[in-house]
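Priority: medium. Attachment 1 of 2:
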């Protein structure tokens, strides 16, 4: 059902949001960033409502029209399907506590999650890709069980502090951004950096960590690449438009 009458401009904006978030789901499958049907992405429409994936649709088949509009209480305002409990409690808490985190992506992507499964696991400054995240990652070192309750959702939202990324011990990753382009760009590059770290560690040789001043210099260089996330996401969407355009169906 629809509880809000939207202006034509608002309807167009929401349609664009649906397509962008649906693209993020499809792209996550292509880069092996998902796990079965158990992860979730959301995008705030306003202070009261957000888009989120319905439980049970595989991301490789998810379309813009499949996304649900829900409120913080978990009521489905638009769309058919149900919201998985951990999706509701984690995303509702982060959207509420961090209004600038308009897009929230949570996955169990393998290499980054592997780091969270090590004692004191951290994304180490061993590559220029890792330097992109200098000072941007919060770490929750205490796994609290499934996030299927309000208390755990609030705890994770608090653990993020003022960082756009959260490494969740023994669990997975959360990235946030002002839009799907920013949040997905972070998701993609974190997994790339984590893969390099895990592969380097598997060599049995000591990790070659960059000195702090070089990390800071490299991070500044990344920050100076204005519009990089948007350009990257646009390029990836062009691939979907050519190879799997059904993602955008409303």
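Attachment 2 of 2:
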């Amino acid at each position: 059902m629809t509880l809000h009458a939207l202006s034509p401009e608002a309807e167009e904006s929401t349609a664009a949001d649906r397509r962008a978030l649906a693209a993020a789901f499809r792209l996550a499958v292509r880069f092996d960033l998902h796990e079965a049907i158990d992860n979730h992405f959301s995008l705030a429409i306003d202070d009261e409502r957000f888009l989120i994936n319905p439980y049970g649709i595989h991301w490789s088949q998810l379309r813009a029209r499949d996304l649900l509009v829900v409120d913080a209480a978990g009521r489905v305002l638009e769309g058919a399907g149900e919201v998985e409990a951990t999706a509701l409690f984690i995303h509702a808490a982060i959207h509420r506590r961090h209004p600038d985190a308009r897009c929230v992506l949570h996955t169990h992507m393998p290499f980054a999650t592997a780091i969270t499964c090590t004692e004191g696991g951290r994304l180490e400054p061993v590559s220029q890709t890792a330097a992109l995240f200098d000072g941007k990652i919060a770490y929750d070192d205490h796994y609290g069980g499934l996030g299927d309750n309000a208390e755990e959702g609030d705890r994770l939202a608090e653990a993020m502090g003022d960082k756009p990324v959260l490494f969740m011990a023994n669990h997975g990753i959360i990235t946030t951004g002002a839009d799907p382009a920013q949040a997905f760009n972070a998701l993609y590059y974190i997994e790339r950096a984590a893969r390099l770290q895990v592969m380097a560690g598997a060599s049995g040789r000591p990790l070659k960590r960059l000195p702090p001043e070089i990390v800071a210099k490299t991070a500044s260089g990344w920050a100076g690449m204005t519009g990089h996330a948007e350009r990257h996401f646009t390029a990836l969407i062009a691939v979907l438009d050519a190879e799997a355009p059904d993602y955008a169906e409303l």
